[in-house]
Structure formats: C-alpha cells, structure tokens
Design goal:
By secondary structure, this protein is of the alpha+beta class. The protein is built from 22 helices and 20 strands. A hairpin with a 5-residue loop joins strand 3 and strand 4.
C-alpha cells in the first residue's frame, strides 16, 4: 500500500512508460498522480491499494481479477466513458492510466451551484444511461456510480469513470470493504449492502440516487452515522420532492421505482429509467431519441402516474392473459405484451411424460403432432399416435363446423388481411419487434370462439403467440409489441386460427395464412436484422441510423467547440466526423491520435462508414437483391424505391459534409462551413420537411436515415389470405 508519507517520493519515478510528475490527491481507489509518457502528453496515473494483509494466493487472485477487469474497460470506446488508455502493476500495486482532461465532478457542480433544473437533469440522465447501457452490453456493471464518479467536460458533456472498480475495492479488505465503502457510496443498493449478487438493476438504483441528488442538491439519504444511512437504504422510502415545486409530481414515482428495495421492482435498464423520466416531465423534446428497451420492469407494475397504457394496449394484454394461462407478461416502453411458451416440451424440461402445455385445452394440429411422434420411442410413440388420431377426429369435427360456417357466409371466404412490421421503441438502436395485423371482410366468430394469430417456425416448431384479433369499425385488428427479438426471424409463416378457450399453440382451423417470402427476406434481414460482414454483424439500415445519429451528435459538439476557439479540438472533431463518414476504407480515414483522445474526442464510428462501400451503397445493393428474388412482392418494390430515395438524399448530404469537414480540418479557424455541416448532419439522420406539410416524406430532398429504416420495414409487409 502507498502510504501518505511516501507519496511525494514517487515524483520523478518511472512507472512503466510513464514518468510521475506530481501528486494530485487521494481518491477512493488510491493515490493519483500526473504523469507523462512524452514531452507533450499528460496523463492521470492512479494506484489501487491492493489487499493489505493477503496471502500470496489471495494477491494472485486479486491481480488476476484486476487484469481481467482492466482489459474489459480498456476496450471501451464511448463518448461518455472516460477512456482507460493503459494499466499495469508497479511494485506489486496495480495502476490505471487515463487521459488528463479538464474535468469537474458533478458533486463539485452541485456543491457550488445547488440543484439543477429538470431539463438539465434529463440531459445528464440520458448521457449517463447511454454509458451504463454500453457497459452492460459489454458485460460490465459500474457497481459504484455516484456524483463523484461522473464528471463534466469543458464542452458540457459528461463522462463516467471507475467502471467495475467496486469489486476490486471489495477484494482489498473483504471483511471491512462494505462498511468502508459506505463513506463514499451514497447510492449502494440493498443487495450490495446485504452481500447479494448484483445486476443491471443495481446500477439503476445508484443512477436513481444520482438523479435525486441532482434534482434536490442533497443525497437521497442522510444520517449522523454510517449505520443510519445503511438502515435507510435497506428499509426507508425515498424522501418526497414536495419542497421542489419545479419538479413534476410524476418524477417522484419514477425515482421511487428506480430505487425500489427489491431489484425485481426496478427498471431493469438505465435507458428505461431515462425514458420514464422524460415521459413524466410531460414536455416532448422532438430532438431526443428514446432508448430501445427490452422490458421496462420485470413482472412488476410501475405506478400509473409514470407510464400511461392505452385502452387498446390494456385490452390486448387482458385478452392475451385470458387466452394463455402460461404466458408471462412483460412491459416494453410502457406497452404490455405477452410472451408465449414454445409449443414443444424440450428434453431438458423436467415434466411428466405426456404432460400437456399449461393452460392448453385443445390438442395441437395433426401437423405438429406428426413431428412430435418422431421424438417418441416405444410406448410413447404408440401413445402419441393414439392421441394424434383422437385429435384428428376432434379437429376434423371442428373443420366441418367451420366449413359449414364458410358456406353460410361467403364473406369469410373473401377475407383478406395485411401484416406490417415496425419497432416498439423507435430510436437509433431499434429492432423490428412489433407488428400490426388488419383484416377485412371477416365475419364474427361463433359464440365462445376467438381469432388468434401466430408466427410458426416449421423447422424448430417454435410458436410465437401474437394474441387475439379484436373487432374494429373497419374489420379486425391486432397490435403486438414483442420481446427484444426480431420478428422477421421468428418463423416462416403467420396464421390466423379459430380457437376455443385458452390455448398456447394453434389448435383450431386456419382462417388466414401467409408464408414468409424466404428468398427475399434473406436480404431484408440483412437490411433490418443482421449483416455478418458489418462490425458486430450490425444490420445495414440499423448501422446507417446509428452512424448518422453519431454524426449528428458530433456536429452539435463541433458547434460547441467552435465557440471555445480550440483549434486542436476542431481538427480532432473534424477527423472524428470524417472517420464516421468514410469508415476504415476511406481515403481520409485516420485513427484518432492520442492528442484527440486526451481532449476527449474518441467517437470515430464503427469503421464501416457511410460512403464508398459503407452502409449507404451496401443497403442499396441488398434492397436490389431482395427485389430480384422470385418471391419478391409488389409492396417490396414500392417501398424499396422510397428507401432508395432516402439513401440518395443521405449520400448527397454526407458527400457535401465530407468536403466541408476537410476544409475545417485544414483550416480550423475558418468557420464558414460550420452551419452547413450542422444542418446536413441533422438532415442525414432525421431528414427535413422541405415542402412544409408537417411531415418528412420519402421524397427527394426530405427523407433521411429514419425514413430509410421505416421504408425498409415496410418492404417486409405481408398479405394474408384464406388457405388454398
């Protein structure tokens, strides 16, 4: 351990490739120093005080964990996470190296200026949440988020530090670490205090404590002793916000949900918390892109004041619950949906042989039963055969009844419908996980029966239950908001069946059917689901949205930097945006220098680029390939043409922006092109309403990346018809 008395003795010492210049202070991690690796670049070198009284085996485990965690953090590249540029071990003590950037902590700002307004808090919340989401996606929890680990840069943007360091601190002194950490851990969740496993919801709790502190100017819990605070963290409700009249009433419910004592009662993603906070504010920020979330809560309900559920959503959820006793309810962006269990019992499930799915009153159709028979052996085969024959007799009777119904009313035979796919949570990271079905000329079902919709996969025998169709003035409809999976890959056909009672798999006769155009869908999936050659297999239109969104954000920062007249940062920002535009294959691409990293400029895209052989041209190529397939539909041709218009718009805007950025990079004091860069970046992502009709349409000069993605989803539109 580095003792206070020997702190100055390290000045002038070489630590790895760094020379220690000056002692800064003592943080919760350990001693901090300024250091340099050359004559121009300065870094912050922080030592971690390892276990004071550890056996060689314990120290080895500690250092192994340190290297594992530091390797994870060093790979992070995110605009709101302070980069870890290097790490190592010096005289048995691990150390971390970060850029030396002018920063001040959120605590410093609060102590100086007091509570922040709700708008600023919302802006900060989005930035912190996106950093946490990024870390969670890469398998790292922060574990110690507070106003002391969040800093404000000179450009007003936040950076979060010390990801994953909490576990290292606990290893320092296993018996005392938790009590010691409370001296600076105001947002420790109950599960941390009780030594239970942590999860993303643990970081949500800490984030709730940070937001409460920002809104009120005071920690959420205070006390004369550490034990007082512990007791409140474990058992007390968060104090009311009645003394802060500028905070909307609904915000308290959002904070109470984020800081629920039971982790299962909290938002399970920081982004879900951020979405709910902005919803509670009431004022709509048209420039804000909501977070894409899998589900807002687990199976618990957020108070009605936080998220309002439409009557249509409630009806859909109630119908789903009544028709599927084994379904689990989830929430996605405040919308209730149902996840049905797979139709076939897996070999790993420990259930009695021959057991039916829970809540099922009818046997599956013979087609499904035929495949089930192949899985049996001996007596099981015979038993399934008997069951299938009985089911066949039952279903044959039902089919006869439906045939009579069809003969009685010709309107059923002329029924037709349409399936459109969309995203339950629009934004730069959205998935095509929702759909709407509309059906016309379909008669009401017989008493006691309902129309249900399903996506089936003939290869895996999986079934996604979409719910019950409800009658409307125009016919019948169903809106389904799914899980965090992509419905375009859920199966190979969609059916509407006539069912009686609660069923978990389709048991009744098929009324309407559509087989997915599998050949064309292969290329549509490259546009919307996954494209293997792209970084992280990012779908082409999704990558297009993400990179234009990043470009738009960087343009806003560029404006801020221009006001500071920092020429070096202007050059770095211009290079950052050129890298996003051109990708690693671009003529002007250049990895950001250490100087840029030190200035906090780290965003340079995913390397695939927008121009050249990047997202724009590759998306055009795969749209054309989809149209060339024998099963391509007329709807695909229509919306592919609209998508191509948007891609052409983006290509023109970004090409002009590229030339402007080259001018800025070469002449950082010449700001004549700055406004054009900002405008074009916004156009490329959001589009622009040129004709002033209040909407951005898929026409020349208007549509951007958001419209391109929407048109790509509409390419997947399907037509339902009675089975032949």
């Amino acid at each position: 351990m580095i003792k206070h008395a020997s702190l100055d003795k390290l000045v002038g010492t070489s630590v790895g490739t760094y020379v220690v210049e000056q002692y800064i202070g003592q943080s919760k991690l350990g001693a901090s120093y300024l250091a340099h690796a050359d004559q121009t670049t300065t870094y912050v070198l922080r030592f971690l005080e390892g276990p004071a009284h550890a056996t060689p085996k314990e120290r080895e485990a500690y250092l192994e964990h340190f290297h594992y965690r530091a390797n994870q953090i060093a790979a992070f590249k995110h605009p709101h996470i302070l980069p870890l540029v290097d790490f190592g071990v010096f005289r048995g003590l691990p150390y971390l190296v970060t850029p030396h950037i002018p920063l001040r902590s959120l605590r410093t700002r609060i102590d100086k200026n007091g509570a922040l307004n709700t708008f600023t808090v919302g802006r900060y919340l989005d930035q912190i949440a996106t950093a946490l989401e990024y870390a969670h996606e890469h398998g790292v929890l922060h574990d110690d988020l507070s106003v002391d680990t969040i800093f404000i840069r000179l450009d007003g943007q936040l950076v979060v530090t010390d990801f994953g360091m909490g576990s290292l601190l606990e290893m320092n002194s296993p018996d005392k670490a938790r009590k010691q950490s409370l001296a600076w851990g105001e947002g420790y969740a109950p599960e941390q205090l009780l030594g239970k496993p942590i999860q993303p919801a643990t970081d949500v709790y800490a984030l709730g404590a940070v937001i409460y502190h920002l809104l009120t100017g005071s920690p959420v819990f205070a006390g004369n002793t550490r034990d007082d605070i512990v007791q409140q963290q474990l058992y007390a409700s968060i104090p009311p916000l009645t003394q802060h009249s500028d905070v909307p009433v609904g915000v308290y419910s959002v904070l109470a949900c984020a800081m629920a004592k039971d982790a299962e009662q909290r938002f399970n993603q920081p982004g879900a918390f951020a979405n709910a906070y902005h919803h509670a504010l009431g004022a709509v920020d048209k420039t804000r892109v909501p977070f894409a979330v899998s589900d807002v809560l687990s199976t618990k309900k957020l108070p009605a004041i936080v998220i309002e559920t439409s009557l249509a959503d409630t009806q859909l959820a109630d119908d789903a619950r009544s028709n599927n006793q084994s379904a689990g309810t989830e929430r996605t962006s405040g919308r209730i949906h149902t996840v049905h269990q797979p139709p076939v019992q897996r070999a790993t499930e420990e259930k009695p042989a021959g057991a039916k799915p829970e809540g099922s009153n009818d046997s599956p159709r013979p087609a499904l039963m035929g495949r089930l028979r192949k899985r049996g052996r001996g007596r099981v085969k015979l038993a399934l055969l008997v069951v299938s024959l009985i089911a066949l007799l039952i279903i044959t009777g039902a089919a006869v009844g439906v045939t009579l119904l069809l003969q009685k009313n010709n309107a059923v035979a002329h029924a037709s419908g349409q399936v459109t796919f969309f995203s339950s949570q629009p934004g730069a990271n959205e998935q095509t996980n929702a759909l709407q079905i509309t059906v016309a000329q379909l008669v009401a079902p017989p008493a006691g029966k309902v129309y249900e919709a399903w996506i089936l996969n003939d290869q895996t025998e999986d079934v996604v239950g979409l719910g019950k169709l409800v009658a409307t003035k125009q016919g019948w409809s169903l809106t389904y908001s799914g899980t965090n999976s992509n419905l375009l890959t859920a199966g190979n056909k969609l059916e509407v069946t006539l069912e009686r009672g609660a069923v978990t798999v389709p048991a009744g006769p098929v009324i309407l059917l559509v087989n997915f155009p599998v050949h064309a869908f292969q290329h549509i999936e490259h546009l919307l689901v996954s494209f293997p050659p792209a970084p992280a297999k990012t779908a082409l239109l999704l990558g297009l949205m993400q990179q234009t969104h990043m470009l738009d954000n960087q343009a806003v920062v560029l404006q801020t930097v221009a006001n500071s007249k920092n020429a070096a940062m202007m050059v770095c920002m211009a290079q950052s945006m050129l890298d996003i535009i051109e990708g690693a294959h671009g003529l002007h691409y250049h990895p950001l220098s250490d100087t840029c990293m030190d200035l906090g400029v780290i965003a340079n895209g995913d390397g695939y680029g927008l121009l050249g052989q990047g997202y724009v041209s590759t998306a055009e190529k795969h749209a054309a390939l989809a149209l060339s397939q024998p099963d391509a539909t007329n709807t695909m041709h229509e919306h592919a043409a609209s998508m191509d218009i948007a891609l052409t718009n983006i290509s023109g805007w970004v090409t002009t922006m590229e030339q402007d950025l080259l001018q800025v990079r070469g002449h950082p004091t010449d700001l004549t092109a700055l406004q054009e860069i900002t405008t074009l970046a916004d156009n490329a992502y959001r589009g622009v309403d040129v004709n002033g009709n209040g909407q951005i349409e898929p026409i020349a000069g208007e549509a951007g990346a958001l419209v391109a993605f929407q048109q790509g989803q509409l390419m997947a539109t399907l037509s339902l018809a009675p089975p032949v």
